[in-house]
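Hi U.,

Before I forget, here's the chain from the pilot set. I'm dumping it here mostly so it's searchable later in email.
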Amino acid sequence: MSPESKKLFNVIILGISFMFLFTAFQTCGNIAQTVITNLNNTDFHGSGYTSMSIIYGVFSASNLVSPSVVAIAGPQLSMVLSGVFYSLYIAVFIQPATWAFYTASVFIGIAAAVLWTAQGNCLTVNSDENTIGRNSGVFWALLQSSLFFGNLYIYFAWQGKTHISESDRRTVFIALTVISLVGTVLFFLIRKQEDTKAPGEEDSASEILEDSSSAQSKMTRAVAAFKKSITLSFTKEMLLLSVTTAYTGLELTFFSGVYGTCIGAVNRFGSEEKSLIGLSGIFIGVGEILGGGIFGLLSKNSRFGRNPVVMLGIIVHFIAFYLIFFNMPNNAPIAPMEGTDDTAYMIPSKEVAIFCSFLLGLGDSCFNTQLLSILGFLYAEDSAPAFAIFKFVQSICAAVAYFYSNYFLLQWQLLIMVVVGFFGTVTFFTVEWEAAAALAARSSDYSSI
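Structure:
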């Protein structure tokens, strides 16, 4: 197998592994609050929003040290161990206990930071300036296929149900736990890249993949990775991209947790309200897959850079927010177990609700594929610290969003995303223009988006 084929193989395996792992986790997140609402008349008194807030809060803090962990353990082992913790979190729902639920939330926050730092490193090491756009698109399309499979099962399994029984819950979460373990095992298929540096040449991305028998050497690399993370976080480009990243954290919270809860709370959807949560997740996944596939395949043919894709993303999201504002009751995110009989500015439409799910997924893919691409392009030699900072900002904003989702009406959640999304688009444009100018100055074709 040629080196290029080997790299593409690694990217595909990486994407498939994440597809299985997040088929379980994203489906779990999409239905968690609905399942928990049906549990809160028992001894269980947890909150799905609070759990996600804990996860992303710990996630954000853990990103400060995750490059050091990846430097010591290596990206492959880091992803395997992280996958085990994801499986344990999902397994908690088989027989829920409040203490176990929140404890698992802390551990998965740590695991998520390590997982995504290792993923960013693995993606960058297996890409170059000309393939980072394609590989980002391929990875994102495979990853977001996870939204399709799990939610398709939820749609059919929960068809016509207004209450989720203990048997329904256990069946779903046993299946999701097994699926997440399959994804974890697949990480072992990723092949290690050989070191191709000239003697004395430094490349932190390659260093992280080296096997070192010296504990002192590993500790030195860990400290260096931590220092590099701190240094990069205060650069102009990273500060500007942090605004864009903050927006992705807010809208991630909305489409992965809040919107499904809103749909499941609207009594006017009748007996289909619970199964519609699964259908919503499917169409979010369709949007994500379509966006990732198109922007990955077209990356080499674009002469306009990443900005048009990001512009498409914000326009699509603004249309979705407008339609959701008109279609969904204001109190839907915080409705009680009985749901809400309120209406917004129109009679709630299932078709509009599902169409908005598709738009949310498509817009999210626009932002995330381009952020992965520009980070891999700008920080090819410092991929682990750069992706750690990206996930730090994204996760802390997601944690804040999950926290206020317990209290804010729908209109205020939408307004926050509109404001942050606008400024995030502007700052991304600024960084992309500077990157294009730097690339032109090196007399290189600007071929990756």
